[in-house]
Write a structure and sequence with these properties.
Blueprint (H helix, E strand, L loop, with lengths): L2 H16 L9 H6 L3 E4 L3 E2 L6 H6 L3 H6 L3 E2 L2 H10 L5 H6 L2 H8 L3 E15 L2 E14 L5 E11 L9 H17 L4 H11 L23
Parallel strand pairs: 1-3, 1-4, 2-4
Antiparallel strand pairs: 4-5, 5-6
Length: 218
Amino acid sequence: MNRSFLLTIAMIMLLAGCVTAPPLKDTSRFQAAAPRSLLIVPVVNQSVDITASDYFLSTMTIPLAEKGYYIFPVHLVKRVLEDEGLSDADLVHNAPAEKLGSMFGADAILYVTIESWDARYYFVNTTVTVQLAYVIKDGRSGETLWEHRQRMIYTPQNTSTGNLIADLLVMAVNAAVTKIAPNYLPLARQANAISFAYPGPGIPPGPYSLVPSGSPKK
């Protein structure tokens, strides 16, 4: 092993040691507001899949409840809003956050917009994409406390058999199946997990989160 090679390795290690982790998202406004409860309102759906909002809504409660926040039952919330004349998600998102907060007694409101929820076919492959925009506003002042955008992409993995014709046929079949019945929910759950991760882009644990011992935080 010559001296120049060792010097190169040493330089690479030195540079690697200088690389810093990406800065964490500033959560000072969120922490100052210290919400205990989150109201998840109906999702605005900008995709062509009319069922996307209802399916995605079902993925929201568990990760946020596990973070230690009280989550209002999403389907009950939707029903109450409909009774109040807010049957359309766009109307809900445009309503003052303070109004929604006082209506339910919620400390903060979580708004989600589905920007993409589709499966696109390219030659012999199908790419499934989920792209989401999250915003949390204070239920008392209407101030934006936190926001994030997340995009997840899935393309079926195809193994090679060494036979080009057979491989192309398998790829075409896999792509067709994915196009006909794409499974968005795993991608949506992954997007939630990444978006709410803390430390990272997400929000800090709530007042009802559990410490390792299993006892509630003080």
